[in-house]
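Input record (one chain):
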Amino acid sequence: MLEVTWPQVLAWRMKRQSLVPRTSDPVPEIVRRCAGIQAQVHSAAVLAVAQRQRTPKPDEVDRALWDERSIVKTWAMRGTLHLIAADELPVVVGTMRTLNPWSRPSWERYFGITAGEVARVRGVIGEVLEDRVLTREELGAEVARRVRSEHVRELLRSGWGMLLKPAAYAGLLIQGPPRGARVTYTRPDTWLGSWSEPDAVEAGAALVRSYLHAHGPARMGDVAAWWARQTAGKVKTWFAALGDELVEVDVEGRSSFLLRSDLDDLRRQRPNADLRLLPAFDQYVIAAARDVEGLVPAKRRKEVFRTAGWVSPTIVRGGAVVGTWYSSRRSRGFPQ
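The corresponding structure, as predicted from the sequence alone:
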């Protein structure tokens, strides 16, 4: 079994995610290399892409989204908005459609809508959006009219997207081009022009492959937590489907999986001392396991992973988070 250190692994991840060195590749390739980029805050996603480019260009992410249609923006991993390479969206949907948190009694009690009603609304959203691009208000009004429910209209207007996510998970909804300051939605099969979705295990194996290329070596639980805050058992069949593509490596006593095709590259990797300022919610930090001392010291994790799901902008040196930053006038490193 190959034995590697965390500085070696983190330097390798920075290279895999085009942080060191930066790249001249187009936006979809950058998004793909990171296994998606969280886009709950759109400006942070734009900065995440720019940090990986040698020569960032204004509005390049928006052009990729709305003009080239080479990436999409939708609810995906952990129920958060992500930028996804358009040709990888079927893989993401193939795994997300296996989730149904709205079937839990606690979900029904909190939102006041049954799992059956959610399924009905999801289907109607797919019907309404066929060959159309609608604002949240227009979509909510039409769906509420068809299901005859003002409560559904209110839920669809919510910024949390609790009734939009089931449709996104099912491959029936992505964000469309903004109409002024208003968000719009459409269907991916009409927006992208083609749609071929693998089965859940095949999709899961592809998702694991994508994650390990960017964030390996990793354990099953790391992938499950990144994907949907699930337990390791939820992704076990995905790992099994990869078979001989996987090898185990030892990262300072932590047995983890790596793609066999990446083994020699990781073996040759040397630690570095390169410095990067990453935006809030950057994929390098948010997609990694949070219990890695070499990435974020335990006593500093609350400064990085804050309340209400906020992930701070970080100062990264040699792959390790050494501080947080807030503006050009105010930043701070972790006391030594």
